[in-house]
């Protein structure tokens, strides 16, 4: 279950209904996948071969096709990051820049953790959404945000795209304090 931390006020929001209601107000899609469907051997595995990636994608085929049908995604893939990823620190530096996309950025976490730091409305400012396996989130199109890992420094996530060229980020020049 996701946990939200509002950077300016240090408010922490927990619990499904509270998290859902906060994110709905900010225009952020939040859903949940049943992680018990995933075979045990893939729940804590962060170095995945193509066959294992296919296995995860086929386990959640129904959920992926449902999301794609509702929201227009045309392609999807699986990303795995851990200390075994070459240049992890360089990749994280890139992910940690505030940026926007010309489509919404949807991620379904299937193992490990990740944090999206999202610019909320004027009153709220930036807030962290800490995600764990089963959490599905979508940052709205054009909404400034960035992504990083948590202390475990490992994540596996399904990414869905409308544009067929995959992940394209456009830098966003922030004029206010991002906080923390
Ligand atoms: Fe992004």
Automatic annotation (TrEMBL):
PANTHER family tied to this protein: ACIREDUCTONE DIOXYGENASE (PTHR23418)
Protein name: Acireductone dioxygenase
Cofactor(s) annotated in UniProt: Ni(2+); Fe(2+)
Pathway involvement of the protein, from the record: Amino-acid biosynthesis; L-methionine biosynthesis via salvage pathway; L-methionine from S-methyl-5-thio-alpha-D-ribose 1-phosphate: step 5/6
Species annotation: Neobacillus pocheonensis
Amino acids binding Fe(2+): 99, 101, 105, 145
EC number of the protein: 1.13.11.54, 1.13.11.53
Binding site for Ni(2+): 99, 101, 105, 145
Important to generate the dianion, annotated site positions: 107
Family annotation (HAMAP family): Salvage_MtnD (MF_01682)
Keywords: Amino-acid biosynthesis, Dioxygenase, Iron, Metal-binding, Methionine biosynthesis, Nickel, Oxidoreductase
Gene name per UniProt: mtnD
């Amino acid at each position: 279950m996701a946990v939200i931390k509002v950077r300016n006020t240090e408010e922490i929001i927990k619990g499904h209904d509270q998290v859902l209601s906060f994110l709905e107000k900010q225009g952020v899609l939040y859903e949940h996948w049943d992680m018990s469907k995933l075979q045990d051997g893939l729940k804590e595995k962060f170095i995945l071969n193509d066959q294992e990636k296919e296995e995860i994608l086929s386990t959640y085929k129904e959920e992926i096709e449902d999301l794609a049908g509702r929201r227009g995604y045309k392609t999807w893939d699986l990303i795995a990051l851990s200390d075994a990823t070459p240049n992890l620190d360089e990749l994280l530096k890139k992910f940690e820049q505030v940026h926007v996309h010309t489509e919404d950025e949807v991620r379904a976490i299937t193992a490990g953790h990740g944090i999206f730091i999202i610019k909320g409305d004027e009153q709220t400012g930036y807030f962290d959404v800490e995600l764990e396996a089963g959490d599905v989130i979508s940052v709205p199109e054009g909404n400034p945000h960035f992504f990083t890992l948590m202390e475990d420094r490992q994540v596996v996530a399904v990414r869905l795209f409308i544009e067929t060229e995959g992940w394209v980020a456009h830098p966003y020049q922030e004029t206010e304090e991002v906080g923390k």
